[in-house]
Amino acid sequence: MIVDMVKKEKLFASQGGPIILAQIENEYGNVIGSYGEAGKAYIQWCANMAQSLDVGVPWIMCQQDDAPQPMLNTCNGFYCDNFVPNNPNTPKMWTENWTGWYKNWGGKNPYRTAEDVAFAVARFFQRGGTFQNYYMYHGGTNFDRTSGGPYITTSYDYDAPLDEFGNLNQPKYGHLKQLHDVLHSMEKTLTHGNISTIDFGNLATATVYKTEEGSSCFFGNVNETSDAIISFQGSSYVVPPWSVSILPDCKTETYNTAKVTTQTSVMVKKPNEAEDEPTTLKWSWRPENMDSFLLKGKGESTMRQLFDQKVVSNDQSDYLWYMTTVDLKEKDPVWGKNMSLRINSTAHVLHAFVNGQHIGNYRAENGKFHYVFEQDAKFNVGANVISLLSITVGLPNYGAFFENVPAGITGPVFIIGRNGDETITKDLSGHKWSYKTGLNGFENQLFSAQSPSTWSGESVPFNRTMTWYKTTFKAPLGNEPVAVDLLGLGKGTAWINGNNIGRYWPAFLSSEDGCAAECNYRGTYYAEKCQTNCGEPTQRWYHVPRSFLNSDGDNTLVLFEEIGGNPSFVNFQTVRVGSVCANVDEKNVLELSCNGKPISAIKFASFGNPGGKCGSFEKGTCEASKDAADILTDECVGKEKCSIDVSEDKFGAPECGGATRRLAVEAIC
User: What region holds the SUEL-type lectin domain (predicted)?
Assistant: First the structure.
């Protein structure tokens, strides 16, 4: 169907359109072993089916080492320089270069350095690569219920070159742009040249691409600790550890992956200036109506069995009620003074009620979704209504047999009675269970601006479970991206003018350990390397697209709070560049940009051997004769961007004992 739609619009390159490749399946090779011979037969079927569609462009299969001809197998990962296609006539293609990693609720912020991404790209092209594609190049947002997982956050920023809000993630964006400018300048040589490689030992190599018109060179050093000194055609070159130098003419180094000359942008949040008191929004509230579930146990369907949540709800909601009524007599063996409810569960979050009373809730840690929840409960002689609310937070969408991963109250469920040393269990799993998908507030669209429901502005309760909150606010001035700070809330869902901006869960903090003040880009990257944000909410800020907002008049924010939180801290802010830094070696060009805003001041500048890092630069032991701050103030302040040659002609000649001289600068936007 999709191919027919694309053909109808004449979008394939064979029809004169822009689509040059088509893909069938995605990373099936990572799971094919779990399916045995059926998996192999399926991949053959995919190849035959795709080929029969006659799209006129090549078909690719990612991570499929046994891709049938004429499918092209390609590589996904942090590094693909070692990848070899299964057909010697297939180009070496890298379809997903992971620029970072995604966040999980309860997890930390992944961070992959610009140096390492650039190293991976340059190393790939050094070793015969022909095509590479970033995943993600533009980070994004999982609005509504689109985040999978389980436990993938609403933010899908991914530490990508363009961030979730559309801002340049500097220096990653600029460092990669410079790399591709250099690679494009060598395109003819790289695509037509004969390749030869020289091994210098200690993980250092030179690769030469040669045509009749000229040569281009890569010098690679995969050693993680020591420089490589490469002697080539009468000249000597120093290649830092874990880096690649590129010489388009095999004489002059124009780029090294470890030498970042692009600015670092420090992003800041700015209060909503459209509001007189942006931090004190006026709230109204109403409870989620659960009486029919808690007191009557009435649902939409009834079965004498506990079913997986996916089976009952068909993924139409995060919420599913499991309800049953139990008649107890004083003669019942389980009856006693000390009674509890024990639930074997795979719900991501569980709320348990007995006779309308909330006896407790449970939050699963990521990856630990099989647990036993037990809580003391007060039962009555006669009828007792047990109501269990199972909540999912994104369903699995990857791996073998992911559709079979259980979710919900999979049971068994017991009433536990204790009389002295004796423990009696009453299994409720085969009782008549009533099911109800979703919550009344969602069905009645309390989040809609057209909702006729009544809200109370009196005695707004905080830290109350299963509660709806509503407020109005003015859209922040200007056109900068908007974020809402939901710190202080627990877990739930947020809507702006009826648009679902996603699940929120600021109450879920990451662990205190696993973060380091410094990140060493040298050495193989993995998702847990260089993490930040230890001990903080996994996600505090939530993206509000300007297209969701009314620039004139009021906007409505509605929150559904599941576990209890304080909305009085909620406020809207804009995201912008606060300051920019650069640390550029001599004989390079310094470029500063405030992303459309004027540079307002030079906070620090020094040409010589300055130390420190962005935000805490300090002068070194050698300093140029001219005042670098004065020069940069004249050249840059008041402009949106400026460009300066870093040279002793410009800044004077510091005596640094032969060491490389550089310019460090921090500018305020």
Answer: 584-669
